[in-house]
Specification:
Blueprint lengths: L2 H33 L16 H9 L8 H4 L5 H13 L3 H11 L5 H18 L1 H8 L8 H14 L1 H9 L4 H14 L6 H10 L5 H14 L1 H11 L2 H16 L3 H4 L9 H18 L1 H11 L7 H13 L1 H10 L3 H18 L1 H11 L6 H15 L1 H9 L4 H18 L1 H6 L8 H17 L1 H9 L3 H8 L3 H7 L1 H7 L5 H18 L2 H9 L7 H13 L3 H9 L4 H15 L4 H7 L6 H18 L1 H10 L4 H11 L7 H8 L4 H15 L4 H8 L6 H15 L3
Helix pairs in contact: 1-5, 1-7, 4-6, 5-6, 6-7, 6-8, 7-8, 8-9, 8-10, 9-10, 10-11, 12-13, 12-14, 13-14, 14-16, 16-17, 16-18, 17-18, 18-19, 18-20, 19-20, 20-21, 20-22, 21-22, 22-23, 22-24, 23-24, 24-26, 26-27, 26-28, 26-29, 29-30, 29-31, 31-32, 31-33, 32-33, 33-34, 33-35, 34-35, 35-36, ...
Length: 701
């Protein structure tokens, strides 16, 4: 047996023995805690029994006479107590530390309890990391993920090799990911040799929280350095998201001074995301000014993030002022946004008042169902039974099902097991089926094994109903479990799950593994779509290989589907490579769709090149589709761009392009938007759809 194999076996045995040893102590500790569950070690207002002179004497003696949490919390100051706790933890073994942890769990003062548990778990991990990990996952502590994070942080710093071996054997996948992210956090989040080793050995990349913390550390040193990292290391949506994170972080030092860095972004979309986030932060600083300015200008408020954030900030700081603005506003869209912010704030302190206010004011809104759902969602976080009772009392069947799903989802996000208890309030049928799906989806994220056991405890028909909409969530959190469950599903659900599993196999394992998985379904109706989807996902990593695989597909329809995937995946990264694939698509409709996708993605990165390419296309469906895609991104089209729209030959496509201009205009110039909507080139059915949207979103302008 190799040294590595011996180490792995040792760690596995250590984890198992730690769990067994912890269970023995936990069982006794649970009995101890259960018999005194109403007894606290120290209330926040309790007076200490040890005087300051006596505390100084105990310090001089190294606190050797203090052997319990109760004794430590008789000391007069927080510093004394922390000092004594470190001393006691330092001279205690694993069993004693676990006893101390169960005693510390009963400290009434939340900050002191968190501090004590942090110290004790820190020390227990140094002494016996396997037991510390097992204990952090018991019912007493698993609700506080910071405790398990402390274990992984400490274990990684003490012995990274052993911690990595332990992380590899964690199940389900969500547990492995949590271990990896905690280890990244212990070593600077990312961007150094140790974090690269963690990523290589575990096959897991830093998540958005670790990426954000790394970005903030760069910004602390130099905002320009952080932006350089965004420009060079990130792409697409990740780049825009990071720009928003950076803006929010820098805005804490002053939004105006942060605006000067916007010009350092290489990509316009990232600069726009950065500026939008800064504007939103400004809205929080002076919400009344932002709201009054926006109302005076008019426009589509839902597309201005600073208006949304200003309303949220006003409701948080001056609820009466928000209510007054709701009452005075003449814009239906603005009233909707005020109402949602008001019920959210009311629900935090008085769920009943939130529901009462919603009922009293809902009739005046265009979208009554939306406010009702918002109110129930926020009430469910405070009083689930009240929210579910209210949801079940809704007369409209569709709205009742939506409301019940929203309430159960909120409860399940907090505690899936407690959400099961509320199923007794729901009669059997579609409502209960939907509620069970919500529980499963949320539970898969936190404990897929427990969720699967619960799902499989039902009959086959119910299992299929519960899992019908849960594919994506389980595939993301525990791919092996999803593969095991696949045969238990009905034909309809199997098709959805196959697609999700194939995509995840490419992303987390290999293209070959995904193709092997797909091959077993040859002859099934969804086989062509599966092949194309896998090739599209492979293109994200190796475009040349994906193209070769597409070219080898014998069936022309399946091959065209694969080529369409290639254009969609590569259009934003390398438009020229995507352009080379376009002529190989034989199906006219799919080639037109591909041309539209390419135009939209290309324009986001190289607007002039995309524009010139679209102009060079011969008249026809591809030309029309490409120009339509471009027109939907022109907020203020030039005369030349307007002529390009007029050159579209398909009347319906030309009408869509002109309506796109209307949607952009009504944010800033309602009168001109109305004038453009009267254009004779806009078909009547498109004009009616636009008028409905204008009236709903813009009010009675």
């Amino acid at each position: 047996m190799t040294k590595t194999a011996i180490a792995i076996v040792a760690v596995i045995c250590g984890v198992l023995l730690g769990a067994i040893g912890t269970w023995s102590v936990y069982r006794n500790g649970a009995q101890f805690a259960g018999s005194t569950e109403r007894t606290v070690v120290r209330d926040i207002v309790a007076a200490p029994k040890v005087s300051e002179p006596e505390a100084e004497k105990l310090r001089d003696e190294g606190f050797k006479s203090l052997t319990s949490i109760e004794a430590i919390f008789e000391l007069p100051s927080e510093f004394n107590r922390t000092e004594a706790l470190y001393a006691l933890a330092g001279r205690s073994g694993a069993a004693k530390l676990q006893d101390l942890i169960f005693a510390a769990e009963r400290i009434a003062d939340a900050p002191e309890r968190a501090n004590a548990l942090g110290v004790l778990f820190f020390r227990l991990t140094e002494v016996d990391p396997e037991s510390a990990l097992a204990l952090s996952r018991t019912s007493y502590f698993r609700g506080d993920k910071s405790i398990e994070r402390t274990v992984w942080n400490t274990w990684g710093r003490k012995n990274l090799a052993d911690a990595l071996i332990a992380a590899k054997i964690q199940a389900p996948a969500a547990a492995r990911d949590f271990a990896a992210q905690s280890l990244f956090d212990a070593f600077g989040n990312m961007g150094n040799e140790i974090t690269e080793r963690i990523e290589t050995e575990l096959g897991i990349a830093p998540d958005r929280n670790n990426r954000a913390r790394y970005l903030y550390r760069l910004a602390d040193h130099s905002p320009a350095e952080a932006i350089a990292y965004i420009n060079t290391a990130l792409q697409g949506e990740d780049q825009r998201m990071a720009a928003s994170w950076l803006a929010n972080y820098l805005a804490q030092t002053g939004a105006r001074s942060a605006m000067q860095f916007a010009e350092l972004f290489d990509h316009p979309a990232s600069a726009a995301a950065y500026k939008a986030s800064l504007q939103a932060e400004s809205a929080r600083l002076d919400p009344l000014a932002v709201i009054e300015t926006a109302l005076a200008k008019g426009g589509n408020f839902s597309r201005t993030p600073e208006f949304h954030f200003a309303i949220q900030a006003l409701a948080a700081s001056d609820l009466d002022a928000a209510k007054q603005m709701f009452a005075n506003s003449t814009s239906s869209e603005a009233r909707q946004m005020f109402a949602q912010a008001i019920v959210e704030r009311l629900a935090e302190s008085d769920p009943g008042a939130a529901l009462a206010w919603m009922r009293a004011n809902n009739a005046d809104l265009d979208d009554q169902a939306m406010l009702e759902l918002q109110a129930l969602m926020h009430v469910a976080q405070q009083d689930p039974r009240l929210a579910l009772t209210e949801a079940l009392a809704i007369d409209n069947q569709q709205r009742r099902q939506q409301a019940v799903s929203v309430v159960i989802s909120q409860v399940a996000q907090i505690n899936p097991e407690s959400a099961i208890e509320y199923l007794t309030m729901i009669d059997s049928g579609p409502l209960r089926d939907a509620a069970m799906q919500e529980i499963a989806q949320n539970w898969f994220q936190t404990d897929s094994n427990a969720a699967i056991n619960w799902v499989l405890s039902h009959d086959d028909k119910t299992v299929d109903q519960i899992l019908g909409s849960s594919a994506w969530m389980l595939v993301q959190t525990d791919l092996d479990a999803a593969l095991r469950l696949l045969p238990k599903l009905g034909p309809g659900n199997q098709a959805v799950w196959r697609q999700q599993i194939a995509e995840q196999l490419v992303q987390t394992r290999s293209g070959a593994a995904a193709m092997n998985f797909v091959a077993q379904f040859q002859g099934e109706p969804d086989y062509p779509a599966l092949q194309a989807a896998v090739i599209g996902n492979i293109a994200n990593r190796d475009f040349s290989l994906a193209r070769q695989m597409a070219e080898q597909i014998a069936d022309s329809n399946t091959r065209d589907m694969a080529y369409l995937q290639l254009v969609g995946r590569q259009g934003g990264q390398s438009p020229q490579e995507a352009l080379a694939v376009l002529p190989q698509i034989r199906n006219d409709a799919q080639r037109t769709q591909a041309a539209s996708m390419l135009a939209m993605q290309w324009y986001a990165s190289e607007p002039e090149a995309a524009y010139q390419w679209a102009r060079s296309l011969p008249a026809g469906a591809e030309y029309d589709g490409a120009v339509l895609a471009l027109s939907q991104q022109w907020t203020e089209p030039t005369a030349d761009q307007l002529r390009l729209i007029d050159s579209i030959t398909d009347p319906d496509v030309k009408g869509q392009a002109k309506v796109a201009r209307v949607y952009h205009l009504y944010q800033t110039d309602p009168a001109l938007a109305r004038k453009v909507l009267d254009d004779a080139d806009i078909p009547e059915h498109l004009r009616k759809e636009a008028e409905i949207l204008l009236n709903r979103s813009f009010g009675r302008y």
